[in-house]
């Protein structure tokens, strides 16, 4: 019997999301006939992996350490196959600035942006350049931490007066912040399984400016439309763009690409790629899979299958 260690929890700010995802994954794996070992990731991870000797690790971690390549590097050292993307792809996806530079260099559409670390503000006088930055991006501006998921720490600056507080909030989550042009339009997500783009999901928050952390994980706070109501050619365009980004960043197994389609121009813009998308009951990947006729158990089974051949 194939033995699967489900890596969950961890110490990131997204611990609770991870535990919710993992509970569903463990139940599905058990139904599929796998031997399941749940591992709440902590200081004893290496010792636990050596003791449990799993055939594969199903990584259900979010945030720092779990989806930024750290745990993946340890699993590489231990020679344990694992689900989803490898070390370098996880690093690129976890760092919004790095991934946006990669997309810009490749000529892929992503909203204009500037990024700074705390040193730039404390020691290099970056605050003095805020006027030029604001002029280049134009209001409203999105201010976000460079390396957090689940919409944590994202603020919406409608005017110059809103920028300082938004920066303080973002810096509370990360040592580097991203100031990004706000794209007014429809928020779409394209989940990818293997090399297949699944049906597009549209997230429509109720009353919020953004699809924020609370809206993302509280049932009833956001309306999801899947498949999104797009023309066939629009669907094909955003799916192909998502696949291009997935390949550019070196992802494998599964991932989710988040985009905005601008109301005024109809142009799609890639916001970010999530190398370890959630698997909770409000997460977008399971919804997209379901729309493609792939039930949750089958989805989990396919993720495991995709993990094994690449490393045998």
Q: Could you give the topology of this structure?
A:
Elements: E1 3-8, H1 15-31, E2 35-40, H2 45-52, E3 56-59, H3 70-78, H4 87-94, H5 96-105, E4 113-117, H6 118-122, H7 130-137, E5 141-145, E6 155-157, H8 163-171, E7 176-181, E8 185-193, E9 196-197, E10 201-205, H9 213-217, E11 222-225, H10 232-248, E12 254-262, E13 268-274, H11 284-291, H12 296-307
Parallel strand pairs: 1-2, 1-3
Antiparallel strand pairs: 4-7, 5-6, 5-7, 8-9, 8-10, 8-12, 10-11, 12-13
Helix pairs in contact: 1-12
Describe this structure in words.
- There is one protein chain.
- Helix 1 (15-31) packs across helix 12 (296-307).
- This protein is an alpha+beta fold.
- It is 37% helix and 23% strand.
- The radius of gyration is 19 Å and the shape is globular.
- Strand 12 (254-262) and strand 13 (268-274) form a beta hairpin.
- Strands 8, 9, 10, 11, 12 and 13 form a six-stranded antiparallel beta sheet that branches.
What is the average of the pLDDT values? Answer: 88
* Relative helix content: 25-40%
Largest sheet: 6 strands, antiparallel
* Count of individual beta strands: 13
- Quaternary status: single chain
Strand content: 15-25%
Looking at the structure, what is the overall shape?
Answer: globular
* Cα-to-Cα separation, first versus last residue: 17 Å
User: Unreliable stretches, pLDDT < 50, 5 or more residues?
Assistant: 211-219
| Element order: H for helix, E for strand | EHEHEHHHEHHEEHEEEEHEHEEHH
Radius of gyration over C-alpha positions, nearest whole angstrom: 19 Å
């Amino acid at each position: 019997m194939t033995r699967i260690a489900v890596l969950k929890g961890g110490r990131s700010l997204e611990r609770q999301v991870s535990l919710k995802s993992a509970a569903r994954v463990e139940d599905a794996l058990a139904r599929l006939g796998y031997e399941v070992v749940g591992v709440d990731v902590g200081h004893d991870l290496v010792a636990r992996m050596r003791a449990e000797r799993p055939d594969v690790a199903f990584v259900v971690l979010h945030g720092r350490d779990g989806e930024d390549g750290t745990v993946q590097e340890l699993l590489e050292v231990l020679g344990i196959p694992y689900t989803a993307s490898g070390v370098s792809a996880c690093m690129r996806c976890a760092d919004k600035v790095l991934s946006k530079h990669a997309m810009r260099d490749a000529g892929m559409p992503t909203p204009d942006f500037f990024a700074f670390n705390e040193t730039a503000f404390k020691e290099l006088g970056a605050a003095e350049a805020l006027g030029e930055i604001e002029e280049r991006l134009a209001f409203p501006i999105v201010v976000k931490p460079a390396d957090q998921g689940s919409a944590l720490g994202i603020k919406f600056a409608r005017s110059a007066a809103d920028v300082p507080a938004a920066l303080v909030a973002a810096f509370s989550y990360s040592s580097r912040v991203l100031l990004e042009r706000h794209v007014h339009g429809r928020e779409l997500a394209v989940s990818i399984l293997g090399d297949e783009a699944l049906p597009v999901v549209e997230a429509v928050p109720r009353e919020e400016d953004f699809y924020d952390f609370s809206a993302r994980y509280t049932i009833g706070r956001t309306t999801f439309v899947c498949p999104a109501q797009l023309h066939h050619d629009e669907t094909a365009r955003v799916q192909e763009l998502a696949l291009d980004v997935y390949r550019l960043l070196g992802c494998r197994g599964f991932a989710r690409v988040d985009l905005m389609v601008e109301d005024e121009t109809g142009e799609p813009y890639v916001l970010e790629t999530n190398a370890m998308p959630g698997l909770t009951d409000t997460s977008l990947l399971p919804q997209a899979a379901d729309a493609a006729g792939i039930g949750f158990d089958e989805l989990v089974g396919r993720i495991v299958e995709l993990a094994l051949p690449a490393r045998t």
